[in-house]
# Entry
Amino acid sequence: MTDAALPFSFEIVPVTPFQQNCSILRAPSGRAAVIDPGGEPDRILTAAEVMDARIEQIWLTHGHLDHAGGAEAVKRATGASIIGPHREDAFWLDQIEQHWAQFGFRDMGEDCTPDRFLDDGDRLELEGIAFDVLHAPGHTPGHVVIVNKEAKLAFVGDVLFAGSIGRTDFPRGDHQTLINSITQKLWPLGEDMRFVPGHGPMSTFGRERQTNPFVADAVTGYGRADKDAPTFSMSTSIRPKRWM
Ligand SMILES: [Zn+2]
Ligand SMILES: [Zn+2]
# Structure
């Protein structure tokens, strides 16, 4: 996507059988970062070439196979360093190959050892363009969200989707922790914040606060002065698709 208002351009490349949204962020000079190269490294490298982008950094939101499985291959091809997620996700990064095998795939991805883990409040930089790092556990314990406030654009991995939220039925996943991450870390960034989720179409925090059956304000009570008022439970009757 090329948007005159953005300090960088970006393309979304869906990869792996899970159609995971890998994003390539390109600064005006061509220096680039790739977020969540989950697999199909050749497709990612070709997309970068078409953009005339030189991948120098690999940023990971979390350690799941479809987000991190292609990171080592992209690193070998480009020399980029792998940064993130939070170290609490190391156990996921160590079982990517085994996890793919459980889904019946071989050679789909590799275990990953980041050059650096991230903490809440860290700052990433691409040619002077700053990105804030927020620790947002729940889907996985070491999940991070990467935010560019200038462009009002967030890369949220599997924390939040258009119309859904991340699964929490994996080891060390926790539903209430995920809801807290969304309401306490994401919503304060503003309703006009657009986001690229790990799967599916983009949306805005404002739209999800209106319509998301899991985390709409009517469900969570977020932003209401009277915290004791009853909240609706839409999620018991509606079961939108939830991704890996
Ligand atoms: Zn995913
Ligand atoms: Zn995931």
Q: What stands out?
A: Residues 175-186 form the longest helix (12 residues). The domain at 9-220 is CATH 3.60.15.10 (Metallo-beta-lactamase; Chain A).
